[in-house]
Specification:
Elements: H1 2-5, H2 8-28, H3 30-66, H4 71-124, H5 130-156, H6 158-180, H7 182-191, H8 195-236, H9 242-252, H10 259-272, H11 276-301, H12 310-353
Length: 357
C-alpha cells in the first residue's frame, strides 16, 4: 500500500482530482463570486482612482513641501491651480466642442446619406468581387446593429451614469486626504511589516515607484502630444471636427498598442462621409502620428521603463479588458508591471534564502 501511495502517477492523479474538485467548487459558487467582485469593484473603484491621482501629484506636493510649504497648503495650492486651469480650458474649448457637436448633429442626416451613397457605390461596383460586396453589406448591418445596441445600453445605463457622477464627486475628496496624509499612510503601512523584512519592503516600494512613476507621468505627456499632432494633421487636411476627433485620439492613446486603432476609428468613419480621398488622408495622418509616437515621442518621454515584452502587454490588455472593460485596459499594463516587480522580489527572496552548498 505504501509503495502504491508513493508512486509518482498516484501523486499526479491526486493533484488532478484535487484540481478538478476545486474547479467544480469555483463553478458552483461562481454567481456568489461574481456578485462579490461587482460589489468590491463598485466600492474600491473611487479609492483606486484617488490613489492613482495622489501618486501622480505626490512628487509636486513633495517638491513644495521641501520648499517649506506645509503639505495641506501644497495640496490646496495644486487643487487651486488645477481647478483654475480646468475652468479656463473648459471656458475656451467648450464653445468649440459645443459648436462642432451641434454641427455634427445638424449634418448627421446628410453625412449618413453620403456614407450610404459611398457604400452603395462600392456595392454596385462590378469591378469588386462578390465576396467583397457581401462583406461591405455585412459590415454595414453589423455597424447598424451595434449602434442600436449602444443607444439601447446607454438609455438603460442611466443608473451607471449616476454612479459614475458620484464617483467623480467623491474622488477629489479622497485624493485630497490621501495626498495630505501621504507620509503618514506610508509610515503606517511600513509599521505593519516586521522589522526584519522592513528593508526589503522599502526596496520593493522604491522599485515599484521606479517602474510606475516615469510610465504614468510620461504617458500623460505622450497623450497630450499625440492629440496635438493629430489636431494639427486633421486641421492641415481640412478634416471636419478636428478638435473633437483629435481629443478622442489623445484619450484612447492611454491604451498601449490597441488605443491608436480605437482612437482613429471615429475619424475614419467621419472621413468616409466626406470622400475616399479624405479617408486616405486621415489614415496617413494617424499612421504618421503613430510613427512619431512610437519612434520619437515615447522613447524620449517614457522610455522602456517597464521592460515588458509586447506579448505580455497584449496578454495584460486582454485580461484587463475582460475583467473591467475600458478601465481595465487603461490600468492593465501598470498593474501588470507592479505584479512583475513583486514576483521578482519574491523570487530573489527565496533564492537568497536557499543554502549554498
Amino acid at each position: 500500500m505504501d509503495k502504491f501511495i508513493k508512486n509518482k502517477w498516484f501523486a499526479i492523479m491526486v493533484y488532478v482530482l484535487l484540481g478538478l474538485a476545486i474547479l467544480f467548487m469555483l463553478l458552483q459558487i461562481g454567481p456568489i463570486l461574481s456578485a462579490a467582485y461587482g460589489f468590491l469593484k463598485a466600492v474600491l473603484a473611487p479609492f483606486l482612482i484617488a490613489l492613482i491621482i495622489s501618486y501622480v501629484l505626490n512628487p509636486i506636493v513633495r517638491m513644495l513641501n521641501v520648499r517649506k510649504v506645509p503639505r495641506t497648503a501644497a495640496v490646496l495650492l495644486i487643487y487651486a491651480v488645477f481647478i483654475t486651469s480646468f475652468v479656463v480650458i473648459v471656458m475656451n474649448l467648450t464653445p468649440i466642442f459645443v459648436k462642432q457637436i451641434g454641427e455634427l448633429n445638424e449634418h448627421m442626416p446628410e453625412l449618413t446619406m453620403r456614407a450610404q451613397g459611398l457604400f452603395d457605390g462600392l456595392n454596385d461596383n462590378r469591378m469588386l468581387p462578390l465576396s467583397v460586396r457581401s462583406g461591405i453589406n455585412d459590415a454595414l448591418l453589423k455597424a447598424e446593429n451595434g449602434l442600436s445596441k449602444f443607444i439601447s445600453n446607454f438609455v438603460d445605463g442611466i443608473g451607471s451614469t449616476i454612479n459614475m457622477l458620484m464617483i467623480a464627486f467623491i474622488v477629489p475628496f479622497l485624493a485630497f486626504y490621501i495626498l495630505k496624509d501621504y507620509q503618514l499612510i506610508e509610515k503606517t503601512v511600513l509599521a505593519t511589516v516586521p522589522r526584519a523584512h522592513r528593508h526589503s519592503a522599502i526596496k520593493l516600494v522604491i522599485d515599484i515607484d521606479t517602474a510606475l512613476g516615469n510610465y504614468i507621468r510620461g504617458q500623460f505627456i505622450v497623450c497630450v502630444l499625440v492629440g496635438l499632432l493629430a489636431y494639427i494633421g486633421y486641421w492641415l487636411i481640412g478634416m471636419p471636427y478636428a478638435l473633437l476627433l483629435a481629443s478622442i485620439v489623445a484619450i484612447f492613446n492611454i491604451i498601449p498598442y490597441l488605443g491608436p486603432f480605437f482612437g482613429a476609428a471615429p475619424a475614419i468613419v467621419m472621413a468616409s462621409t466626406v470622400s475616399f480621398k479624405m479617408v486616405l488622408f486621415v489614415v496617413f495622418v494617424n499612421l504618421l502620428v503613430q510613427i512619431l509616437e512610437g519612434n520619437v515621442i515615447s522613447p524620449q518621454v517614457v522610455g522602456r521603463t517597464l521592460h515588458l515584452h509586447p506579448l505580455l502587454i497584449i496578454f495584460a490588455l486582454l485580461v484587463g479588458g475582460e475583467l473591467a472593460g475600458i478601465i481595465g485596459l487603461i490600468l492593465a499594463v501598470p498593474l501588470f508591471a507592479v505584479g512583475k516587480v513583486i514576483v521578482q522580489h519574491i523570487y530573489l527572496y527565496y533564492v537568497n534564502r536557499r543554502p549554498t552548498s
